[in-house]
Amino acid sequence: MLFLKSTSVTKAPGIYEVDVAAKPPGKTFGVFLATDPDNPPRAVLTALAELGFENIYQQNYIHKDKGKVLDMHFQKNGTDLFNGWKTDECAANLAAIDTLFGNVGIKVAPRVMSLAEAYA
User: Is the pLDDT of residue 120 over 90?
Assistant: First the structure.
C-alpha cells in the first residue's frame, strides 16, 4: 500500500499517488496506484492494460481523512528468468510508463525498494 498523505488533492483525475518501484536488484518494475474508487482513472487503467500490465492486487480502504481509496498494483512479465525484464525490456517499459503518466501530468521517478520494504 502506498503512503498517502491526503485524499483532498489528486495528481491527476482519479489518481492520488503513483509509485513505480522494483524489488532488488531492480530490473523489473511494478506500478502502484492509489486511486479514487468513485472516479477511477479509466484511461490510465486501460492504457496500462494495453501496455501489458496486469492488475495483481487491489484493496479498498478509508483513509484517515475519511476519503475512499482503491490501492492497485500492476505488473508485467518479461522474458528473463522468473518472468523478469531483460535490460532492453526494462528501458522500453520504463519509457512507456513515463509517457503514459506524463500524458496526464504526472512525473514518475522509478526506484528500487529497500530489502525491508520489498519483502515486508
Answer: no
